[in-house]
Amino acid sequence: MNPTCRWLAVLASGALLATTGTGCSDKEPPARQSAGPAFAYLDRNGFTVMAGGRQPARVDGNFVGPPVWTTNAKYAGAVTVDWESANGRKVVAAEAATGAWRQLTCRCFSFAGYGSAKIAWVNDDGELFTADLSTDDPPAPLTVNLPAGFTAESVVAGADGLLMVHVLPTVEDPNAAFPDEQKGAVYAVPAAGEPVLASGFDPIQDARPVTASGRRFAYGVIESQGDCAHWGPINIFSQDAASVTGTDSTAALRNAPANSEVAVDDLWWAADGSLHAALSVVTCDPEGGDVAVPASHWRLEGTIWVRANDPSVVRERPVPGGGRLTLDTAGTLRLVSGSGSRDVATGVQSISAPPVAPA
User: Fold this and answer.
1) Distance, C-alpha 55 to centroid of its chain
2) Residue 11 · residue 103 · CB < 8 Å
C-alpha cells in the first residue's frame, strides 16, 4: 500500500476533521505538474494547503497558527485544538503534492520542521517528540542536549539540523504567582552538539513570533506575562556567529497613548533578505489589554524599524518563483507575481509558505 493509502486509513475514524484531499488506491499517485507556488493558510474554519494552482487539502477544525512547512517543502501542518479533550491538541499535516493528510496527538501548541520531512514538538510534560511525515511511523521521543537546569517548554522554530527551543528552569521561581509568570530562555539546539543561548542573558517569558532565514532567526520577546503580555525588543539570532542583535521599534509609539507597548503580530524575511514585521500598539490594565493602534507593516533598516510603503499589508511571505503572498488588515489573501495579483481567499488569519533560500 502506498503512503497516501496508509495516511488516509489512519484517519478513517477521525470524526473531528474533514478533508478534500485525494482518495486511496493501491497504485502510486501520479506526478503532479506544478502550475503555481505552494502555500498554506488558516481561516476561521480550518486549514488549507494550495499547490500548483490547486487546493489539494482542506481540513476543517479549530486551529492555532500559523501553519508550518517542513524544510523539504513537501508537507504543511498546523495544530488543531479540541478544548473538551485532554489529548485534544494534534498536529494535522498534509502532503502538498497529493493532499493526503494525517493527525498526530502532540499535546502541544507549536511545532517546527528541522530536517527534510521531520517535525518536532514539546508536550505538556516537557518531553520532546519527533515524527517523519514521509512515513506512517508513530511519533518517537527526541533526545537532544538541553542546557543544564532547564526543561523544554516549546519548540518555537527550526531549520535543517537545528531547533529553537524555549526552556524554563527546572526549579520553579518562588516569586512567580502563576505558571505563566515563569521566565526562561531560548536556545538553539542542534541535532548533535551543544545548545547555544539565542535570547540574550536576560530571562524572558516567551519568544513569538519567530521567523527563520537559513541560520538566522528573528523573534519577538515577551518579557513578562501579567494582565497581558509585556513586550520587549525584536531580536535577531545568527547561528553561524552565535550572536544576538537587538532592534529598535520605538518609532511605532509616535502619537500613541502613554504607557503603550509595541506588540509584534508577525515577522517575515522577504526574498531579498530584508526583515519585515506587523507591529501594533497595545495598552495593558487589570482588565486585560486593548489595541491602541492597529497593526501595520514595518521594515528593518539597520537596527531601526521604519514604516513600510504598504502599511495595510500585515502578513507577507515570499514564494518560490519570485512571487509573494500578502494578507491585508481585512483578511484578504492575495498571490502577487510578475504578471499581477489575484485574490485567493477572505477571512484569512495566518499564512505560511515553504522556506525560500536566503538572499
Assistant:
1) 21
2) yes
Question: pLDDT at position 322, please?
Answer: 84
- Distance, CA of 325 to CA of 48 (rounded, Å): 14
Q: Tens digit of pLDDT for each residue in 139-180?
A: 999 999 999 899 999 999 999 999 999 999 987 655 544 445
Q: What are phi and psi of 250, to 5 degrees?
A: -65, -20
Alpha-carbon torsion angle 225, 228, 229, 231, nearest 10: -120
Neighbours of 354 (CB within 10 A): 23
pLDDT digits (tens, 9 = 90+) for 58-114: 999 999 989 999 999 999 999 999 988 878 899 999 999 999 999 999 999 999 999
Instruction: Give the torsion sign (CA, 160, 210, 222, 243).
Output: positive
pLDDT at 1: 36
Query: Which burial class, exposed, middle or buried, applies to 76 when counting CB atoms under 10 A from its CB (0-12, 13-18, 19+)?
Result: buried
Report the alpha-carbon distance of residue 173 to residue 154 in Å, rounded.
Answer: 18
pTM here?
0.86
Q: How far apart are CA 54 and CA 34, in angstroms?
A: 9
- 238-271: string of b/e by CB count within 10 Å (b at 16+)? ebeeeebeebebeebbeebeeebbbbbbbbbbbb
- Judge contact between 318 and 211, C-beta under 8 A: no
Long-range contacts of 11-16 (CB under 8 A, 24+ apart): 11/101, 11/102, 11/103, 14/103, 16/61, 16/80, 16/82
Kindly compute the dihedral angle of the four CA atoms of residues 210, 315, 78, 112, in this order, to the nearest 10 degrees. Answer: -20
Output DSSP code: residue 250: G
Distances (CA, A) of 249 to 265, 300, 304, 307: 13, 9, 6, 10
pLDDT score for 8: 36
In the predicted structure, residue 332 carries a pLDDT above the cut 60? yes
